[in-house]
Specification:
Elements (H helix, E strand, L loop, with lengths): L1 H28 L10 H9 L3 H17 L10 E11 L2 E10 L5 E3 L4 E5 L10 E4 L14 E3 L4 E9 L13 E5 L7 E4 L8 E4 L3 E2 L5
Parallel strand pairs: 5-10
Antiparallel strand pairs: 1-2, 2-7, 3-6, 4-8, 7-10, 7-11, 8-9
Length: 213
């Protein structure tokens, strides 16, 4: 009877020891099933996949495009000017002039040309007022626009006035005129007789010429 109890106790003890060993081995192996280091390469790959040189290349490309599409203003030295046509009716006269780009590069014209009427002594004609106007008797609503002149291309504008006088009126008449390109400092001097009996001369802004006159 005692032998059976001892054997039963030994059996129970061996069973408990075996169960304890199995439980402890499963706890040791459990962290290996969830390796934390597997996510770190993924984060490093994401950070390294955004190259810095791409941002630099975008910053450098913008100024180059701006320079290429923005030619400088036209200087008087690279232009020529001449009268290309004349319209008259009901006492009104409109003289059309054109600037030509004689240089080998693009340039811009924008706005109104400068105009001065001179007498026979090359002095400013007295009593004359030059008015900047978007329209004349022969054309209407000519808003300012930037004209990019390629080599050999033209931009035109008009000089308009009224030359009808009363019998007792002595209208002033120019011997020459001075024309200054928009935003330029030097002028052209041309021989031109303009008789503005109202004392007013209108100048329109420059516009592109599609067909050479």
């Amino acid at each position: 009877m005692r032998i059976l109890i001892v054997e039963g106790s030994l059996l129970l003890l061996l069973t408990a020891m075996t169960t304890g060993c199995v439980g402890s081995s499963s706890v040791i192996k459990q962290p290996q099933a969830l390796p934390a280091s597997t996510e770190q390469p993924t984060k490093e790959a994401v950070l390294s996949s955004t190259p810095t040189p791409t941002a630099k290349s975008i910053e450098h490309s913008t100024p180059e495009a701006t320079i290429a599409t923005n030619p400088p203003r036209c200087e008087t030295s690279q232009l020529s000017v001449r009268r290309v046509s004349e319209d008259a009716g009901v006492g009104n006269v409109a003289l059309t002039y054109a600037f030509t780009n004689n240089a080998s590069s693009l340039c811009n014209l924008y706005g109104y040309p400068g105009l001065a009427l001179l007498d026979a002594k090359d002095q400013p004609l007295q009593g004359i007022k030059v008015i900047r106007s978007k329209d004349t008797y022969f054309s209407s609503q000519q808003p300012r626009q930037q004209v990019t002149l390629a080599p050999g291309k033209q931009a035109s504008f008009q000089i308009a006035y009224n030359h009808i006088s009363s019998p007792d009126q002595n209208c002033p008449m120019s011997s020459k005129i001075q024309i200054t390109p928009p935003n330029a400092y030097e002028h052209f001097t041309l021989t031109e007789q303009i008789k503005p009996c109202t004392g007013k001369v209108r100048v329109t802004p420059v516009r592109a010429v599609n067909t050479q006159p």
